[in-house]
Amino acid sequence: MSALIVYVAIIFLLMPLLAIIPVSFTAERFLSMPKGNYSLRHYEALFTNPIWGESIRLSLLIGVISAVISTILAVLFGLGLWYVRNRFSIALAALVFLPMVMPPVVSAIIIYFFETSMVDVIPWIAFDTIGGVVLGHVVVATPFALVTFLVALSRVDRRIDMAARGLGASLWQSIFWVVLPNARFGIISAAFLAFILSWEEIAVTIFITSFSVVTLPRQMWNGMRDNIDPAIAAISVILITITVLVILARDLLRWRAAARARKAAA
Fold first, then answer.
1. What are the residues whose beta carbons fall under 8 Å from the beta carbon of 108, sequence distance 6 or more?
2. Which residues does residue 38 pair with via DSSP β-bridges, in sequence order?
3. Along the chain (266 residues), what's the average pLDDT of each consecutive run of 10 residues?
4. Is the pTM of this model over 0.85?
5. Which candidate, 201, 185, 183, 83, places its Cα nearest to that of 142?
6. d(CA 133, CA 130)
């Protein structure tokens, strides 16, 4: 009975997402359910319209860079918290987690004023630049990546690090050859989460971009504001499909790793 309730709840939560699928196949120029006539014209527009292509390319570029930087920062800070535990650790962790608990609009306003003041000082991270968008996304995504990495790091037995150090390994050798390999799935999950957060980020992006940098969420926002373009439904279906496939692939890799570990233990 409990399993049935879980499945019903999952279906209920997925219904709004599933409703967008038939809308993406409409033959009309506006969002509507297809009335017997289906068309792929809006999917074709995603690949033939240079505006959509450029926004997808920018989102991929910014997402990858933001994920790499956020993951590196999360790993470095997480290792610092794992190795050094004193009265300042909680205060530093609270400072890093601040963007997570702060309303997105507040973070967006702070980043906006910071980047507009950087126009004449550091123009490559100023307002309406790729560097500026990456900076904003890193600020937003790093706390979530840190939480993911800390969860994985909490499962690492400290005794293996102590054993490595006792056998003559240096601190960096212990980190790279003992600690990080045991937390690799946490690092991968942190990078994936940071990329997804950057890929779908809209609140901060609206505040710190204008016309030069138009990411995919910003282009979708423009399409909803100016005219409701059904291509938005098409790109939504593609994004949902990619997200589901990536999650399934990650779970499959984790299942195979767990199966190998059980086989080795046996």
1. 136, 203, 204, 206, 207, 208
2. 26
3. 79 78 79 77 81 88 95 93 80 84 87 88 87 93 93 87 85 88 90 90 89 86 70 82 81 82 76
4. no
5. 201
6. 5
